[in-house]
Design goal:
heterodimer; A: 175 residues; Butyryl-CoA Dehydrogenase, subunit A, domain 3; B: 338 residues; alpha+beta; 28% strand; rod-shaped; disordered C terminus
Chain lengths: 175, 338
């Protein structure tokens, strides 16, 4: 296979998963305006390590790169992070050094669902991957490094928390 | 409550459920249960949130152009012709490849040594038991003819046939145990480790320093030789053997004939598949000076040697237990008619 074939194959995969990466970058970084640039860097990095044998697990692989890239970027820019929401401060603290995504304020997308913003950061990420990106437990395990059992527990807790919130009334989007 | 738990389980199942296609029993419950309806509605709206970014087709096209330009520029900077780094051989990859190649090479060398080398050494030891010096042609068992260069030695292996026309110089066959055979004249014979099969020719053979008894096979008889000199004249229809020096035990193939001993200067003839016994008087060979043979001096009366049978007054000397092969005499042997 020539380099042109490689690039063509890679381009097809990029097109298929571009929106997932953009959404995940926006979710993790809370900087939608920079999501495009970050996605460029992510795909460039992916190209440098691209192997056609990854074609079948490309989504999990590119999401892992995205997650690590955003975390590294956040570490370099850590002083710029601001915690503005009193709700998020109630959430368990995430230590970037542990490979978790950084703590965030409540305004990251989807900001229209207040109940979502009340979830702990860890649950938010897993709920996002599961219900927005439709990623399986196995792939989430590859991306986050957590076991599938742990991920199921996180999802279960998130569903229970949302149900508890929903018992008080409809979870409407903000205008 | 059970149905609410079922809704939770449905939401948690793997892979993630399609929230637009709710199963029948759960659908009715979800419609009637506000908490379940709100919960399912929350997860359904999550993916549809207006703030979740999504690239349009044009934005995707623009993104791809920029990405490909970056890939090309990066590749040109690195001089890797747009190949990803994963396809560039790095030292760790090369290290394992080299180690693998080395292991395979060692295995190949080991197997070649194990399976090939020992048999070749053994066959060399077994098959090459003598060397040939002089002007002669070697015919291998496979029929391949070789002529050793002058002054060089040629290994003789089992079943090697030699043809020589070496008068007046002799051809030397030197055994590994030190025994030597000098052949002068014209002849053809098959050399074996402890046997020489004389096929035809007229030649003189001197045997020296034999470690044991060497058997010389002639048609219908075997000569047991330790160290002596013999003149052979073996032709298609007749044969003649003259013992020039020493003593030879001759054993005819015909069981009705007893083995007998040849003395120096005695000659035997071969005719009608039978070897005649030794003669009492030395007679010169009828082939003296022919075919380049330089025969040893023989008695003048040997010229008129009868074609078969013994001369008057000659008796066969049967071999007894006390007889031994001597290398001190001289005789002429001959045969005819085979």
């Amino acid at each position: 296979m020539t380099s042109r074939d490689h690039l063509a194959e890679f381009s097809v995969l990029v097109r298929a998963h571009l929106n997932s990466v953009i959404r995940y970058v926006s979710f993790l970084s809370r900087e939608p305006e920079e999501a495009k640039d970050i996605a460029q860097e992510v795909f460039l990095k992916a190209w440098q390590q691209f192997d056609p044998s990854r074609k079948n697990s490309f989504k999990a692989w590119i999401m892992t790169i995205t997650r690590n890239f955003v975390i590294d970027r956040h570490r370099r820019r850590a002083p710029a992070v601001k915690y503005t929401s009193p709700d998020i401060e109630k959430a368990p603290s995430m230590v970037p050094g542990d490979g978790e995504k950084p703590e965030s304020d409540c305004d990251f997308s989807p900001e229209g669902l207040p109940a979502f913003s009340k979830l702990p950061v860890q649950q938010r990420e897993i709920v996002f991957m599961r219900y927005v990106e439709q990623i399986s437990y196995e792939e989430m395990s590859q991306i986050t490094g957590k076991s599938e059992a742990a991920l199921r527990k996180i999802v279960s807790r998130a569903v229970s928390a949302i149900r508890k919130e929903a018992a008080n009334g409809p979870l409407q989007q903000r205008e | 409550m059970d149905l609410c738990n079922s809704v939770n389980e449905w939401l948690e199942q793997d892979p993630a459920p399609d929230l637009k296609k709710i199963p029948g029993p759960l659908s009715r419950h979800i419609e009637s249960c506000p908490a379940c309806r709100n919960t399912v509605g929350f997860f359904r709206n999550l993916a549809l949130d207006k703030n979740v970014p999504c690239f349009s087709t044009s934005e995707t096209g623009e993104f791809m152009k920029q990405l490909q330009a970056k890939i090309l520029s990066t590749s040109q900077e690195r001089g890797s012709q747009t190949l990803p780094e994963a396809h560039i051989l790095s030292w760790p990859t090369m290290r394992w490849a080299c180690a693998g190649a080395l292991i395979i090479l060692l295995l190949v060398i080991g197997s070649v040594r194990f399976f090939k080398a020992p048999p070749s050494v053994k066959s060399e030891e077994v098959q090459s038991f003598a060397v040939l010096k002089g002007k002669a042609t070697l015919v291998s068992p496979a029929g391949k003819e070789m002529s050793p260069a002058l002054g060089s030695e040629q290994n003789i292996t089992q079943e090697t046939e030699i043809k020589f026309n070496s008068s007046p110089e002799s051809v030397e066959v030197q055994y590994q145990n030190g025994g030597k055979v000098y052949l002068t004249g014209i002849g053809q014979m098959k050399i074996q480790k402890d046997t020489i099969d004389v096929e035809n020719g007229k030649f003189n053979a001197r045997f020296k320093n034999l470690a044991g008894i060497l058997k010389v096979r002639v048609p219908c008889a075997v000569l047991a030789i330790r160290g002596t000199e013999i003149e052979f004249d073996i032709q298609p229809l007749r044969g003649e053997i003259l013992l020039v020096e020493g003593a030879v035990d001759m054993t005819p193939d015909n069981p009705s004939q007893k083995p007998f001993k040849l003395r120096k200067g005695k000659k035997v003839l071969f005719a009608n598949n039978t070897w005649s016994p030794p003669q009492s008087k030395l007679r010169p060979s009828s082939g003296n000076g022919q075919n380049g043979v330089s025969p040893r001096p023989v008695a003048p009366d040997s010229q008129n040697y009868p074609p078969s049978g013994s001369e008057e007054g000659e008796t066969i000397e049967p071999i007894t237990a006390t007889d031994s092969v001597s290398a001190t005499g001289s005789a002429v042997l001959g045969r005819e008619g085979f």
